[in-house]
Amino acid sequence: MDAFASLIHGFGVLADPMNIVYMCIGIVLGVLIGVLPGLGGANGVAILLPLTFSMSPTAAIIMLSSIYWGALFGGAITSILFNIPGEPWSVATTFDGHPMAQQGKADEALTAAFTSSFVGALLAVIVITFVAPLVANFALRFGPAEFFAVQLLTFCSFVGMGRESAFKVLAAMMLGFALAAVGMDSVTGELRMTYGTVELMRGFDFLIAVIGLFGIGEILLTLEEGLSFRGKSTSITMRSVLNTWKRLPKFWATYLRSSAVGCWLGITPGGATPASFMSYGIAHRMSKNRANFGKGEIEGVVAPETAAHAAGTSALLPMLTLGIPGSPTAAVMLGGLLIWGLQPGPMLFIEQKDFVWGLIASMYLSNVVGLIIVLTTVPLFAAILRIPFSIIAPVIVVICCIGAYTVHNAYLDVVIMLCFGVLGYVMKKLGYPLAPLVLALVLGDLAESSFRQSMLVSQGSLSIFWSNWLVGSICALAMLMLFWPLISILIDRLRNGKNRHQGEATSA
Amino acid sequence: MASEHDVMPSSAPGESQTTITTRGMELFLSGFLMVVAGFVMYDSVRVGNGWASDGPEAGYFPFYVGLIMFLASAGTFAVNLLTRKPDLSNFVARSSLVLVLKVLAPTFVYLGVMYFIGIYVASILYIGLFMMWLGKYSLAKTVPIAVLIPLALFWLFEIAFLIPLPKGPLETALGF
Fold first, then answer.
1. Which of A47, A54, A255, A429 could form a disulfide with A403 if both were Cys (CB 3.0 to 4.6 A apart)?
2. ipTM of the predicted structure?
3. Is the pTM of this model over 0.95?
């Protein structure tokens, strides 16, 4: 078992006490980010990324991933106590979590949510530990054509699996690619789309875009509805934790099912949000207590939380092994890897063993630490949420501005960030998805260079993407995903064609 | 519960809430994206979108990116223009829009001011204005918070992490 030996090596990396300190700081910051509106996992990591430039990459990724785990934990607090999802993936948790809080069972709901998050993450980390080396090993055989095919599949999946209009997904995605192309072309050194300005030579940094789109955009959306936190206060006692833990093992099937859903959607770029909804839906359909769902059923908290955390965690698997992030937050971390000078992809497992296995080992430890921290500090974070929005909002805006400035020490970036905020607000309201935009912005250069390298190999012929069974089947799958909206319309037509004709005949 | 300090959209009774239809906004955004795509394609043609002796030229990839973006946005545009059931619902209620603008306008001013007097003093003014104007706090409650938060940030960035942020005449006078 190579993975075991590597994992033990990874725990050795963690023995550095500073790494543990960074982990704890990360988790506390993450929970804070998770409970505050307008600060989410993706832009929280983006704002803090510049602070890590001086750290070693291992310490930095441990801190940033801990922020991510913390944010995943934190989203549940607001959902249950205030009926306001702190993160999109905890929307499904409000369905049963908040009714439980209203019935005075907030401690039970929170314990169940945190424990489920923990179990989901743990199962996903186990998957990563054993599957990631295999995937990386397999991907060593990949050439540029294969890499481009996998990237193509990732982007086409957004079209096929997204609930938004395919036109909008494509437009948002291409906007990301176009913004990524601004600036100096890495191959020929030519300036693209700078229109003679010096400021645009730097290009659009994805960190600026993420902070604007997710930070400012989210604040504006929240404002529109007006925000006031009126919720239940609670503290968690040891006894209620133990009592809840006694009840949880009987949901083992829900745990396994939700983790499987979460891992699947995390590895394919579905992300934590659809995973939590899907898992809630499946649990609803299969549960014995079906009638109680939506009225405060503990299983309705267990299912989405397990899936969300499993998806969030397993999103790091394709990021590490293939260089393709499974979620916007993972995309920001991938950008971090590139800034620290690490090339994500299969070679990472060979050249940067300390980094990879230190990170994987830290996932085990930080989820244990995270569970303990959230269980003990819920009253504190609930108190933070009682700070009125008119204080929180300007402070978050100030933090976003500082975050945008520190990326390149450029004043113009702050202005661009705010413009992205307005754009994000309008796009979100019109149902344009932001995840493909961010992913395209991060992966733009990588995708372009693998595309151009494969074109060089084939002397400009697209047939290279069908040149062997591996790249061919990935590309075929990608095309299936890309045209899935059309295909599903056709299937619907064929199935309903007869009925519709009858309907039209009677109405006429 | 400090409910009197919550920021909520408020509207006078009888005031019209209509601003712009969702369809109008859809047309505007997809039109805007089509223009952006046009710029992308134009510039890609300028740097060359064909095949040079050493491989694909710099505009090769972005040209197709622009093309797909143009076609996709044109799709959204056409769907909204030609549909028989246009979405004529309100894009944003007037009271909400006012609130959003009340936050956006000071933020743009904040950025402008930041350029001249540095981020810390600008933040004091911004947080203070926000609390007093939108949160209706008294001056006595506003000042400590509006001053302490930028001070804490100053300590964190300039002293603890040694990351320089934009500073103005006040910081210079104090020797930073």
1. A47
2. 0.89
3. no
